[in-house]
Amino acid sequence: MKNTAVKTDMLALPDCSSLDEKGACTLLNTGYCTGTGCPFAHTSDDEKRAAENWRRRLNALSEEEQLRISKKYYGGAMPWK
Predict the structure, then answer these.
(1) Better pLDDT: 41 or 9
(2) In the chain, what are the domain boundaries?
(3) How much is the pTM?
């Protein structure tokens, strides 16, 4: 069951892109923010770095492997290009 209790002091919450406007976690099934010790907390800068690493890693693959992945998961598109 999802806990709908939400912290009222939004400034006390960590800088995490998974928080909604009420301070609830949208990533985990807890319904509330677990605070700065949460191993899943990530900032928008963290997301940008992860996306860049994803693009770089896929671009480093052979064209044949990229084509196989694009057909299997992206309907033939290569969004990392």
Answers:
(1) 41
(2) 44-74
(3) 0.61
Helix axis angle for 44-59 and 63-74, nearest 10°, is: 130
Q: Using only C-alpha atoms, what is the Rg of the chain?
A: 18
Q: Tokens for 54, please give them.
A: 């994803």
HEC secondary structure over the chain: CCCCCCCCCHHHCCCCCCECCCCCECCCCCCCCCCCCCCCCCCHHHHHHHHHHHHHHHHCCCHHHHHHHHHHHHCCCCCCC
Under the banding of pLDDT at 50, 70 and 90, the label for residue 53 is very high
